[in-house]
Write a structure and sequence with these properties.
Blueprint: E1 15-17, H1 26-33, E2 41-42, E3 46-47, H2 48-53, H3 56-60, E4 69-74, H4 78-91, E5 95-100, H5 105-109, H6 120-131, E6 138-143, H7 152-164, E7 169-173, H8 195-204, E8 209-213, H9 219-225, E9 231-234, H10 236-240, H11 248-253, H12 262-268, H13 270-279, H14 285-288, H15 301-311, H16 318-326
Parallel strand pairs: 1-9, 2-4, 3-4, 4-5, 5-6, 6-7, 7-8, 8-9
């Protein structure tokens, strides 16, 4: 087995949680910070049109405790992407990431996401434009290929063109994407995983920071991948079992602080629930939802989830709801 990859220029974290639409919002990110302080977190993908025309406080606002934090952008216009990257930097984000991996029909309709892998020149122009206006890293998340354009040589050529434009940091989902015929969910499971392609990319371009993504559900698996690449990104497993990251700071960042129990994590959210409800009254569900799987696989998990789900309409006080739900857990 190869030795663990080392790179003096590496700046990013060795472990991250993937950007996920309708999942990695500010409440999820704040909750995850009660479990892991060091794992790199991402926003949901935000389109350039939304940022330029929408409510930026709603779209870009975050709690400083969520950092380090990456803003993921969706778009294909280099000038608009550069403008939004600059806005992201001014808002305090630590990094800008361009989505070149999402295969959904809606995203394709806007000519961004995975379909941009067939337009590497446009992506390279976007990278160059963003890097010209910000002082924070500009990175790319992409697939190993799309449709029939999925040979390793296609992946290598795509990365080479972006590297020539100044991108040094790539998160590679080790599955190709079918732009037609598969749903976004199927595109996360049906195309076979090809980890070896990502490993080969790292071997051949050791000067680049290569992060692997796709089908990784445990930290033990993530540690094995670290023998071949610089970093590992975990996606849905982080939402289905968030407490698996309780040992992330120890195993990936050599932290020696005590690991919080699940109950301590839940209690640590009480002030947030109180403060958020006071500052910005809203439905409780978006704040509570990331916590539903806190006890996944543990005695009392069903009782915890059932109480939160069924009683949420009866409470206006999120802190009391969580405390009462904890009473259901052995």
């Amino acid at each position: 087995m190869a030795g663990r990859c080392l790179n003096d220029s590496v700046r990013r974290a060795p472990l991250s949680i993937a950007p996920m639409m309708d999942r990695t919002d500010r409440h999820f990110r704040y909750f995850m910070r009660k479990i892991t302080r060091r794992t790199l977190l991402y926003t949901e993908m935000v389109t350039t049109q939304a940022i330029l025309q929408g409510d930026r406080q709603k779209l870009l606002g975050f709690n400083v405790q969520e950092k380090p934090l990456v803003l993921q952008l969706g778009g294909d216009n280099p000038q608009k992407l550069a403008q939004c990257a600059r806005i992201g930097e001014l808002w305090g984000y630590d990094e800008i990431n361009l989505n070149v991996g999402c295969p959904s029909p809606r995203v394709q309709g806007g000519n961004f996401g995975a379909c941009l892998m067939t337009q590497p020149g446009r992506v390279a122009d976007a990278i160059a434009a963003m890097k010209a206006v910000v002082n924070i890293p500009v990175t790319v998340k992409h697939r190993i290929g799309v449709d029939e354009q999925d040979d390793y040589s296609d992946l290598r050529s795509f990365v080479e063109q972006l590297a020539a434009a100044g991108c040094n940091d790539f998160t590679v989902h080790a599955r190709k994407a079918w732009l037609q015929g598969l749903s976004p969910k199927e595109n996360r499971t049906v195309p076979p995983l090809r980890y070896a392609d990502v490993y080969q990319l790292k071997r051949e371009r050791s000067d680049l920071f290569i992060e692997i993504n796709g089908g990784i559900v445990t930290l033990a698996d993530a540690l094995e991948h670290r023998d071949y690449v610089d970093a590992v990104m975990i996606g849905r497993a982080a939402y289905d079992n968030p407490y698996l990251f309780a040992i992330a700071d120890r195993d990936f960042f050599d932290e020696e602080e005590a690991i919080s129990t699940r109950r301590e994590v839940a209690l640590s959210m009480v002030p947030y629930l109180e403060n958020w409800s006071f500052q910005q009254p809203l439905r409780l569900y978006p704040v509570i939802r990331p916590m539903l799987q806190l006890f996944a696989g543990q005695p009392g998990s069903k009782a915890w989830k059932r109480f939160l789900s069924e009683k949420i309409r009866d409470y206006r006080d999120g802190a009391k709801l969580v405390l009462d739900a904890l009473a259901q857990v052995p």
